[in-house]
Amino acid sequence: MSSYADRLNALRAQLAQDALDGFVVPLTDEHMSEYVGAYAQRLAWLTGFQGSAGTAVVLPQEAAIFTDGRYTLQVRQQVSAEQWDYVGVPATSVADWLGAHAPNGGRIGYDPWLHTRAWVEEARKALAEKGATLVPVRRNPIDAVWADQPSPSDAPLAVLDEALAGKSSAAKRAEIADWLQARNADAVVIAALDSIAWTFNVRGDDVTHTPVALAYTVIHADGTADLFVAPEKVTDAVRQHLGNAVRIQDRAAFAPALGGFAGKRVVADPGTAVAAIFDGLEAGGATVVALRDPVILAKAIKNPAEVAGHKAAQARDGAALSRFLKWFEETAPQGGLTEMSAADKLRAFREATGRLKDLSFDTISATGPNGAIPHYKVTDESSLPIERGQLFLIDSGGQYGDGTTDVTRVMPVGDASHEMKDRFTRVLKGHIAIATAIFPDGTTGAQIDGFARRPLWEAGLDFAHGTGHGVGAYLSVHEGPQRIAPPSYPGGQALEPLRAGMFLSNEPGYYKAGEYGIRIENLVHIVERTIPGGDKPMLAFETLTFAPIERSLILPELLSPEERAWLDAYHAEVLTIVGPQLESAERAWLEAKCAPIG
């Protein structure tokens, strides 16, 4: 099966053998993860799509791939229009499409370990109107035809030092136990990999760019826990760290264990626990309480040790990025660079810190038209030469033992057009509007998202992604529950109240299809802010990322005095934090980049 058409045909043949008239292929794993291990990359194997969010539906005569606005261009480049229809979400949901396209009386298969119960109920209802049924499969049919499917990772767990975690695992489990007792519940099933890593102060290497391990846990109201993980991944040091209150069981024992809670009240998160978990608990006689995973909010509100670690990681990452920006400015106009070679060079600068454990995601190294694809992933096949007259966008980050970084900068190669500068300056104005926002405690990300868009709206422009996402503490680069985005953003995260201690990205952008892309991204920390004479608790953003913002792309006349003051103050802080880490020639370059805008 050397072609994607062959793979699609093989899947259809398998579906016919399984007496199914269709199958749904989401991009996730058994933990509802955004980024997944190689073994779970079923959507990419089937279609060629390399984005981080999407779903496919295969019927006997039709096939459709569903992506949101971030991937409108990318999906058309990577997935054949001869075999696949492109469908945009949330305008059209997978369930609605199934209801319109499934054959009358058809049997549509789904893997209950890859979907939430809410999705199952929505799809089942939509299919019922056609007399069709939704059928759980025992074995994923893609796994049956994917001959060289990788095995799950066997990398060992590692202990996260309590000095970096800021709180012991025992203390975290005690807080979860108190949470359970307050809700008259006996246990909580936690399936989200980053929640498990945070709770037990462990990290793993099972998912590229995200330091988590494939595991499940059940935490009980007495503070003890069962951790379901492959035994070979647990070293003596990890066993000693976890202690006697954590019972280690094989990951394969998790599904059968769900049947052992007869008469118990067990909490499961409908957003992160798949349908199979709810089915297994209910089949065993448990009363399932559908509540959000109690770790999610606790993990999002960073403690002082996590904040301090993140700032240390940001300082060294800012120096690595600044070195790269200087190198790029000097090298790119000479020719010979490609998107791939630029990404490799930035990784080398990060590796030179001696502290890099991994990238925090696949670097978005995009020149010219590829910059207009917000979540573009450079490959050997897609990598373009970086040429004069283009804008180069690089969105990247590092996983360090003390923090997770994510930053985007744009550099011109030679001269930029007036239009490029206008758009860049408008994006900068939106970035500053978020960075300087002051808002009441309890404000949602949806309420302030428009701050970042107004300068673009005033010119009849916009961007088709959220303005900001949560970030973990040496964990996932995309972390909930908080987000800055329009109210309609999928998942409702934009309606989550913002709280002191949360990390977010601040990343407005602008994309001109086929020509260039612009995005300016820093990470920010929500802090309390006292307003003299005010009578409400207020919050504000503390910027965490420090690297120069390209001054040659800024039209100073479009900036207000307040915006110029912010930019000058920001660059002064960049010089203070990053400058001492650089050699003399590098520091001289940075001083010029950080001079007052005038």
TrEMBL record:
This is Xaa-Pro aminopeptidase. Keywords: Aminopeptidase, Hydrolase, Metal-binding, Protease. Its EC number is 3.4.11.9. The keyword Phosphoprotein does not apply. InterPro entries: Creatin/AminoP/Spt16_N (IPR029149), Creatinase/aminopeptidase-like (IPR036005), Creatinase_N (IPR000587), Pept_M24 (IPR000994), Pept_M24B (IPR033740), Peptidase_M24_C (IPR032416), X-Pro_aminopeptidase_P (IPR050422). Residues 537-597 form the Peptidase M24 C-terminal domain. Belongs to the peptidase M24B family. Residues 310-527 form the Peptidase M24 domain. GO terms for cellular component: cytoplasm. CDD domains: APP (cd01085). Residues 7-137 form the Creatinase N-terminal domain. The keyword Protease applies. One of its GO terms (molecular function) is metalloaminopeptidase activity. It comes from Sphingomonas trueperi.
